[in-house]
Amino acid sequence: MSARLAMLALCAGAACADDGRLAPVVIPARPSPYFSWERLPMAFHGANQTGEYSAEAVALMAKYQMVTIEKWYTACAAMRPDRSQGGPACAVEAKVEKVLGEVGALNPNTTRVLYLNSLFNFAFYELNGRMLEAEAAGKESFLRDRHGEVVYLCNDGNGYCNITTFDWTKPHVRDLWMEAVSNATATGNVEGIFADHSAQEQYNIGTPTQGQTPLEMCNGRGALKKCYEFTADFKESFNSWHTWSTNKSQDVLAKTTGGPVICGSYAMWNVRCDFDAIREAQKTHNVVEVKDGCAPSPKCLAAYLTAAEEGTYLSCFMDAPQHFPEMDYTLGAPDGPAEERAAGVYRRRFASGTVAWWDNNKKTGNVTWGGRA
Fold it and tell me: What is the value of pTM for the model shown?
């Protein structure tokens, strides 16, 4: 078992309690999102905060091989000056599913991904409405600290505040999450989820993220940062089930749509556009999104093309999809991995005649395009 998957064995053997306090081990099947070398493999991640995407924007998104729509899609889910959130009537999932369906109608190959934070229960999701209904029926669903206080946090950039958190120790909360994943994919418009703040990203009770002590969960910045304390027993249970949530979701998706759980065990985003960083990420993930892909520099393109393996995309993270000339060039499959022509100097050729060079000593490179449109 790899070091990446070793963390899944949180309750191996006799440590797995029959009472459900600790989650069972789920080693998920691997995702298989669409990937092609025909042109530069691109992914898009973003959302329009002012309204629905135009037909022109949808057509441009359809040029990407993977598309993730971020949580703040349309005005009812947008960030506000007072950091408040729209309510569940916004049903942002349905709006995202609609635009992803439009992308799929233009390019059925595009892998389409719904943002679904695995920690924060954003108020403008229909899923939050289900959580509120459970709470009203007397079934505690929001995470509570050791004193019984409901946890309310700001997200990383303080864009939203007073966000509740899923209590992963509750079976009915886990059912609501899996139902949300199932409902999204049942539309035929969603194939994967972006499970931000996952356990695999080290967003758990007591992990060093956000400067937490061993029994704390904290989030937010500056004066808006808040921390809550939990018992050691609850921490162990919560963290195991939080890990279960993304691994179970990935196993289900891999066996149905083939889509990824980005931020899960096999799919990673926001990797630096650097030869070594890309190769390092590929050691443990078979889906990798490399940032700076909205208007990549020649140096970034060279690093990406010499290092990327199948399943690694050049990613654009911006509210609107972007276009640059190299997106339209024919690329073709590589002859193989980059060849080290001299110590630290790599060359890779593609079927179109495109040749990428990378000098890892000087951290620079170039691309000679053979497939200009």
Answer: 0.94
